[in-house]
Amino acid sequence: MNDAPRKPRIALMGEFSAGKSTLANLLLEQDSSPVQVTATQLPPVWYSLGPGTVERELADGSTAPLPLDDWSAADPASTAMIRARIEADLLYAFDLVDMPGTCDPCMTSDVWSNVLAQVDMVIWCTPANQAWRQSEAALWEQVRPELWTRSLLLVTRMDKMQSAQDRRRVLARVRLEAGEMFRDVLPIALTGAIAGRDDADVLEQTGAAALVRFLETALDEGACAPPLPPAPVCEPAPVPVAAPVPEPVPDAAGRVVPRRIQRSGEGRRERPQAGVG
Question: Which helix (H) or strand (E) holds 94?
Answer without folding.
Answer: none
